[in-house]
Write a structure and sequence with these properties.
The complex is a heterodimer of chains A (637) and B (248).
Chain A (H helix, E strand, L loop, with lengths): L14 H8 L5 H4 L3 E5 L3 H13 L2 E5 L17 E2 L11 H11 L6 H21 L24 E2 L5 H18 L3 E4 L2 E9 L2 E9 L5 E5 L2 E4 L20 H8 L4 E2 L4 E7 L22 E5 L16 E2 L1 H5 L9 H13 L11 E4 L1 H7 L1 H19 L8 E10 L2 E2 L12 E3 L17 H21 L12 H20 L5 H16 L5 H21 L11 H25 L23 H4 L1 E6 L8 E6 L14
Parallel strand pairs in A: 1-2, 1-9, 2-5, 9-17
Antiparallel strand pairs in A: 3-4, 6-7, 7-8, 10-16, 10-18, 11-15, 12-13, 12-14, 14-15, 18-19
Chain B lengths: L2 E7 L8 E7 L8 H14 L21 E3 L2 E2 L21 E6 L7 E3 L2 E2 L2 H10 L19 H11 L6 H5 L6 H12 L2 H4 L2 H14 L10 H5 L7 H16 L2
Parallel strand pairs in B: 1-5
Antiparallel strand pairs in B: 1-2, 3-4, 3-5, 6-7
The chains are: A alpha+beta (637), B alpha+beta (248).
Bound molecules: flavin-adenine dinucleotide.
The site of flavin-adenine dinucleotide has 45 residues of chain A, from helix 3, helix 6, strand 6, helix 7 and strand 15.
Chain lengths: 637, 248
């Protein structure tokens, strides 16, 4: 396998313009001869499907929810970054680019990140034109807030529902295309595999989740915008059904999987309340603008928060990172929380929690202002915990939130399989080893509105529409494999539920491949995961049949993929003998306990190639060449 | 606490459904309602029975996927809460809880507690958008929008499309859902341009899908997890009247 990132030559700030000029175009009358499959209807998929439909391509779009409007992007709360510099506080495209590269701990591709920062400004304009009701000032202009890892105010937001409003914008654009017949939508349909014809991605095999029917769809190109895989940990802030299946199946068909171990643990989530817990709820990072994070100075201090006087509190983020304080990046804040809890200073009944305190902000600004800024988050907190955060501090703890890793893509967002494009959280391209807040929404929309519509044309230009019929043997073969696998899951009829396996796998991953990792732990995980997987295929109990709406079966397929994928994650984490961003190897840290990168040996994207069942995957390295920025030790002090 | 559940079970859209009784044991107050059902389902699967099928995804009240009628009330009757955000601390030991799907002609049952809400998507497809294509948008600050208009628009835009309004209405009317979208877009300068066309088309699509008429009883507003105001229905009626008079 050769990995060619296809980064255009020339100065960083000219690359994308130049590339756009040099790319070949498909003439408007020919676009309708090409069919495109888009799997996913989140920000990345919906924006791509809508934009491709507008250009004239014939699009088929798939999602497993009952409506494209329910993709997991809907849950994003805090906001979306753009280098508009509306606040006159020194922002620029270069600064957003630099913050993102630095935030990613110098493990992202420079040219991609620069392009992302450039496109960020177009995204805001596009969304405003669609009727996204972003927050505004009294003068009628757009408002901004600040987010972790940045010292400027560049985050656009719609109350605490930014993801919802952006997704509805994209969904409405998509609906417009569905209405006029340019996009055909397939909700409640799960892609279970991709089909290659002559080494190119030419279709997918799907299961209709209502009838159980397994069928093929053919096209000239396949776009995966299927989101992240944080649920490999069982508990995460992701929606319940988020999964790795689409991209893992593509990996097994030859697509390289890059940096699978790069996971983001978000510092501000509601702590776990018990074994029944089905998911974790994020409290938006924007809260850290006004909330102060602290724990008692004394170990095992079980007094209520208000009984602990100022001098007895440790505002540890402000103490350790005076210039960023409570707005230190996510990886750093999460690790700091874990440290104080490991020291026995955690709060709440489990001891796995820290305070996020708004008392000062309420004194300074008044409760009304805090209510206006975060009212819905405080309400949500109260709904879940039964506690009033206006009167007492919130309790928060880190939780799995985002996966920076994903399928390897080149500058055109195409994987190493020709015709297979990957967008949004499902690819690996822009966030390196840690993602800054409010930049996933930006990336998803940049990919879908402004990058793919150009680069897919380049792939089609020159090529004749191929459109292999779905009756070709390649499709039948994958269909048969998919049916057999489904049947196999149904025929085990063992003693344990899918959820119990998933929970156990998640625990292994959280303990050994979570916030802190080391060689011994990862090896232990790599011993236990295959054992658990073997048990899974002998002892899982999936009730019901294929020919019906069968949620246990859906879940069983996803967990089966996690069982294999978890091993890839741990292997990647074991291989990377350095700490960077969210990947913290306890063996590699500075004297102050910060992540210690090893640029001489690990300045590459790790792209793994599948070799077959029970064979170790092969590692390919894409060297990260920094033309513009100087790699430095990340400091937020 | 221990609870008795009466759950609507129905194998498919074409088969007959019925209530089946289950016991939910050792329920913890901090559990969400859906987590309580998860636990019941784990028990059913272990006993070789088919689990109760219900929709849910984000479990934080925003995706709009969950859709249960609990004790006769869509989403269970706690103001501003979707089913997934309803917690068991609101129930008492020994309670009997009835759980049903949304019931409306335009939302046919697929299985157990899962219904088909694609009618909502088709209403949006008919006109619930601003007709701009990607590219060529003016600067985001080119058109100032009064904060009050933006806030009001956002109040309407908060709709999660869950369909509780329809489930709660004795006529299974979709007026609150449609009014929320018409208002969200119509209150902004970007959406005003095609407001007449939008409201006419969306209302026609709504009627075509078989939703009933609105008699403004307010039961929709009462169950809406996003507390979308009935006032938007008034606003839509005015827009509709205006557009009809213009004969566009
Ligand atoms: C609680 C929360 C809050 C967040 N807040 C922010 C924020 O404030 N700012 C920010 O920038 N980012 C935020 N993020 C991150 C951001 O929301 C996500 O990274 C982003 O929305 C992902 O978009 P996507 O389009 O790539 O995927 P998704 O929105 O996850 O969409 C995936 C789509 O793929 C479909 N799909 C997946 N697999 C299959 C399959 N096999 N077959 C068919 N369809 C499939 C799904 O149905 C869905 O339509 C947040 C994330 C969470 C969890």
């Amino acid at each position: 396998m050769t990995l060619d990132a296809k980064i255009p030559s020339g100065p960083l700030e000219k690359k994308w313009d130049r590339h756009r000029l040099e790319m070949k175009l498909v003439n408007p009358a020919n676009k309708r001869k090409f069919d495109v499959i888009v799997v996913g209807s989140g920000l990345a998929g919906a924006s791509a499907a809508a934009s491709l439909g507008e250009l004239g391509y014939n699009v088929k779009c798939f999602c497993f929810q009952d409506s494209p409007r329910r993709a997991h992007s809907i849950a994003a709360q805090g906001g979306i970054n753009a280098a508009k510099n509306y606040q006159n506080d020194g922002d620029s495209i270069y600064r957003l680019f630099y913050d993102t590269i630095k935030g990613g701990d110098f493990r992202a591709r420079e040219a991609n990140v620069y392009r992302l920062a450039q496109l960020s400004v177009n995204i805001i304009d596009q969304c405003v034109a669609q009727g996204v009701p972003f927050a505004r000032e009294y003068g009628g202009l757009l408002a901004n807030r600040s987010f972790g890892g940045a010292q400027v105010s560049r985050t656009f937001y719609a109350r605490g529902q930014t993801g919802q409003q952006l997704l509805l914008g994209a969904y409405q654009a998509l609906c417009r295309q569905i209405g006029i017949g340019k996009v055909q939508m397939f909700p409640r349909t799960e892609m279970l595999d991709v089909v290659l014809v002559d080494g190119q991605a030419k279709g997918i095999v799907v299961r209709n989740l209502v009838t159980g029917e397994i069928s093929s769809h053919a096209a000239d190109a396949v776009v995966l915008a299927t989101g992240g895989y944080g649920n490999v940990f069982y508990l995460s802030t992701n929606a319940r059904a988020c999964n790795v299946t689409a991209i893992y199946r593509a990996y097994k068909k030859g697509a390289a999987f890059a940096n699978p171990c790069f996971t983001q643990i978000h510092p501000t989530c509601i702590p776990v309340s018990g074994d029944h817990q089905s998911k974790l709820t994020l409290m938006s990072e924007s809260l850290r603008n006004d909330g102060r994070v602290w724990v008692p100075k004394k170990k095992g201090d079980k007094r209520a928060a208000h009984e602990i006087a100022e001098p007895e509190r440790d505002y540890y983020l402000e103490r350790k990172y005076p210039s960023y304080g409570n707005l230190a990046p996510r990886d750093i804040s999460s690790r700091a929380a874990k440290e104080v809890c490991d020291e026995g200073r955690g709060v709440g009944s489990s001891g796995l929690g820290v305070y996020l305190d708004f008392a000062d902000a309420i004194r300074r600004l008044g409760e009304a202002t805090i209510r206006e800024r975060y009212g819905n988050l405080f309400d949500m907190y109260q709904t879940i915990t039964g506690e009033n955060a206006y009167a007492m501090p919130m309790r928060i703890y880190p939780a799995v939130h985002y996966t920076m890793g994903g399928l390897w893509v080149d500058y055109n967002l195409m994987s190493n399989i020709p015709g297979l494009f990957v967008l949004g959280e499902a690819n690996f391209s822009d966030h390196g080893a840690n993602r800054l807040g409010a930049s996933a929404l930006m990336q998803g929309l940049a990919d879908g509105y402004f990058i793919l519509p150009y680069t897919i044309g380049q792939y089609f230009a020159g090529a004749k529409p191929l459109k292999p019929p779905a009756s070709r043997p390649e499709f039948k073969k994958v269909e048969e494999e998919t049916k057999a696998r489904t049947q196999q899951l149904l025929s085990v009829r063992g003693k344990r539920t899918v959820t119990s396996f998933h929970r156990e796998l998640g625990k292994i991953m959280w303990d050994y491949c979570g916030m802190a990792r080391n060689e011994a732990g990862l090896k232990e995980a790599l011993r236990r995961i295959p054992e658990l997987r073997r048990e899974y295929w002998h002892n899982v109990n999936v009730t019901g049949e294929n020919q019906e709406l069968n949620q246990a079966l859906e879940q069983a397929g996803r967990v089966a993929d996690y069982m294999e994928f978890a091993e890839l994650m741990c292997s990647d984490a074991l291989m990377r003998r350095e700490s960077c961003g969210g990947h913290f190897r306890t063996e590699f840290q500075t004297e102050e306990g910060e992540a210690l990168r090893d640029d001489a040996n690990f300045s590459f994207a790790a792209a793994w190639e599948y070799q077959g069942p029970d064979k170790p995957p092969v590692l390919h390295k894409e060297p990260l060449a920094y033309e513009e920025v100087k790699m430095s030790q990340r400091s937020y002090k | 606490m221990n609870l008795t559940l009466k759950v609507w079970r129905q194998k498919s859209g074409s088969s007959r459904g019925q209530f089946v009784e289950y016991q939910a044991k050792d329920v913890i107050p901090d559990m969400s309602f859906l987590e309580m059902l998860d636990v019941v389902n784990e028990g059913l699967i272990s006993g070789g029975e088919d689990p109760i099928v219900f929709d849910s995804d984000c479990r934080e009240g925003i995706c709009g996927m969950c859709s249960l009628v609990i004790n006769g009330i869509a989403h269970g009757g706690h103001r501003g809460t979707a089913t997934c955000q309803l917690h068991m601390r609101h129930f008492n030991d020994g309670d009997t809880i009835t759980i049903e799907p949304w019931r409306a002609k335009a939302f046919p049952i697929i299985k157990d507690l899962v219904v088909d809400r694609s009618a909502f998507d088709r209403i949006i497809q008919a006109g619930g958008f601003v007709s701009v294509s990607t590219g060529g948008a003016p600067d985001g600050n080119a058109i100032p929008i009064p904060k009050e208009a933006q806030e009001l628009s956002m109040d309407a835009a908060a709709c999660i499309g869950c369909g509780a309004c329809v489930a709660a209405c004795k006529n299974a009317s979709a007026m609150l859902f449609v009014a929320a979208k018409v208002s969200h877009l119509g209150l902004l300068p970007q959406g005003k341009v095609e407001k007449d066309r939008r409201v006419l088309r969306m209302v026609a699509a709504m009627d075509h899908e078989g939703f009933g008429g609105c008699t403004v009883t307010g039961s929709c507003e009462a169950v809406c997890p996003k507390e979308i105001s009935l006032d938007f229905i008034g606003l839509m009626n005015r827009e509709y009247l205006g557009a009809s008079l213009k004969g566009s």
